[in-house]
Predict the structure.
Amino acid sequence: MRTEVPDSDAGFVWDHWTRKVREDDLLAFENTAPGDNYTDIPEHLRRYRSDIFDDKYHRLDANGLSRTITAHLQKDGYWYIHPVKHRTLSVREAARIQTFPDHFRFAGFPTVRFKQVGNAVRPMLARAVAHSIRTAMQGEQLPGRALDGRSFRAPLIRWFRKNRRNFPWRSADTAWQFLVAEVCLHRTRAQQVAEIYPQLAELAPFPQKLLEHGQEFLDLTARWGLPSRFEKLLETARILVNRYDGAVPTNWQDLKSLPGVSDYVASAILCFGEQREAVLLDTNICRIIRRLTGNPKLGPWQARVELFERSGFKGPDTDWNYALLDLAASVCTVHSPKCSMCPVQKHCVRGRPSPNTVVTQRWLRKTEQW
């Protein structure tokens, strides 16, 4: 963001100002947490009808995706409360979310500047689109990328059908059972969970039963340590009973708002429990895509795009995600990966040595050791 800022402006961040916050709005802002909306604010602090303005006073999440910046920002900015501070965004903060570098300046009255930011096509998006068009016109192939998803997906799925791991939760009937399994699997080996999962499923077949047998559930899972995650699961069960009539939400945002439900768990529930397409990204799957591309510093959202491109016509469905998880566990392991047994070896920068990739592979291995 600061690369092309002139030396004369090195000590300045231009356009970094925002509107003054009303005292009643300040009280409302102070009562919001990351991801909260207007309906999460105490009723006595609401200035508007909550059935119409349910998306106002949205507190952004510093570790999540921002709400899309729109020209509405010129009016009040209540859609974009700062993740930490009790105020709306400045022009420069909105511009950074839109990927404008700091040397780019905006003109006109304050509301006009907000409108310019909101109406703009993101520079990094424009660059990515232009790069893809140029690559297609010149007939180039990006290194390490399977441009035809079918050629990557087909051998992976064939391998999976012969080598799949048959864990009991994979044949679960409800989204709740998948939720319980994913919470249990956090920082615990799958085989350990498999040993007692049938008991867990019988003890807590739905949220209300978990609340009735909460202590038994905590005692049964005590062997794994990390008791806080199971206490959060009990709190999630209370929320599901009180707010959702015992049902698990079917949209990502509501799932993500539940205690202890991470991005990965929310996406896994939608994929495995609701049979919907979702790109799953945990440490193991991230390791696979970094090795495939030869980029050990591949960021999470780049990794999602790379995985989606390789998922083929059917997209990132249940078989696709289970195949990646099983590949990471048995072939593309942390130490000593079995590259000769990998069904997608020819698509992998690390697994298929060539004169152009030897240096990259050495760098990748050294980075993994670090």
Notes: Confidence is low (pLDDT under 50) at residues 143-147. The radius of gyration is 24 Å. The CA atoms of residues 169 and 352 lie 35 Å apart.
